[in-house]
Design a protein that fits this description.
CATH topology of the largest domain: Signal recognition particle alu RNA binding heterodimer, srp9/1
Distance between the termini: 32 Å
CATH class of the largest domain: Alpha Beta
Radius of gyration: 20 Å
Number of strands: 16
């Protein structure tokens, strides 16, 4: 199982967006679709039978989408960085992603690339397309903007310290700028548990920063792993954002620390057992597998 899964929070367009994304990328497919039942629909205000969570693959990598209502909106602080091998490929993807969307940087030649463009698609998700070749075609890109500007290197070093098989693979630094940014990282590429990530520092002041519309699920094999990631990522973060396995770290990035046991028990064919597990989980901040098992095994 992929260790870190990008998680996208939509209002009510998750199924439509997933169908669109899987239609334009290769080696892509829709996985499980979990739907709102009568009980969860009443709580959420969603229509019974509508899609709640959809898992899907793009270019062989795992993603998840949620219909969670209009609480959170996508911005450009986290985007997907897509390396395209040919100009034909980049032109075709650009045409599809930009349709009814918004151009942030025109598809053009730049000093750093023969062809590059940044676009926000019709669902609000941002994509950076660039000519290049990499084993992992699509990589999440974190832009440290707003109150997080200038903290890119600090954040990368922090994340790399938490995950196995992690290190910085490339970094570029500010030059000839204001003293508070001089010598700090402006762009970097790094691996977390072998997965490619990109980070960039906003060179100009932006009116936004990270929010819960884009989070990362850490798939954990044990309580020990849950404890490890929760302890370190929650330190210095927003305590009000800690619930049901969700947390917001000290840089404002949102994470979901999820043991595989939780998914297995919530997916049980015995609806009564699954409901007890869900109710137990809703009372938690950090997920406690033993408490979930007690609820699952309750007679």
């Amino acid at each position: 199982m992929q260790k870190i899964t990008p998680f996208l929070w939509f209002d009510n367009q998750a199924e439509e967006a997933v169908n669109f994304y899987t239609s334009i990328f290769n080696n892509s497919k829709i996985g499980n679709l979990a739907r709102y039942n009568e009980e969860s629909a009443k709580v959420s205000g969603r229509a019974p039978g509508s899609v709640m969570v959809a898992s899907f693959q793009l270019e062989g990598d795992e993603f998840t989408a949620l219909n969670g209502g209009p609480i959170f909106k996508f911005n450009h602080s986290i985007s997907f960085y897509v390396r395209c091998k040919t100009t034909t490929e980049i032109d075709e993807l650009w045409g599809k992603l930009s349709h009814e969307g918004k151009t942030l940087m025109a598809l053009n030649k730049y000093p750093f690339s023969e062809k590059y463009g940044w676009v926000q698609d019709k669902y609000g998700v941002s994509w950076q397309l660039i000519l290049g070749n990499n084993q992992q075609k699509i990589a999440p890109c974190l832009m440290f903007a707003g109150i997080q500007q200038g903290r890119t290197e600090e954040a990368i070093n922090f994340y790399v310290s938490l995950f196995k098989e992690s290190h910085i693979t490339m970094s570029a630094y500010y030059e000839n700028v204001e003293p508070e940014l001089e010598g700090k990282i402006i762009h970097a590429e790094f691996l977390l548990n072998g997965q490619a990530f990109i980070a960039m520092d906003s060179a100009i002041k932006m009116p936004f920063t990270f929010n819960e519309a884009f989070s990362f699920v850490i798939n954990c094999n044990s309580q020990e792993e849950v404890d490890h990631y929760w302890e370190h990522l929650a330190e210095g973060g927003d305590e009000k954002a800690q619930q049901c396995g969700w947390l917001k770290d000290k840089f404002g990035v949102s994470w979901q620390i999820v043991p595989k046991a939780l998914i297995e028990m919530m997916s049980d064919k015995d609806a009564v057992k699954a409901k007890r597990v869900t109710q137990a989980m809703l009372k938690m901040k950090k997920i406690d597998i033993n408490v979930l098992k007690e609820a699952y095994d309750q007679k």
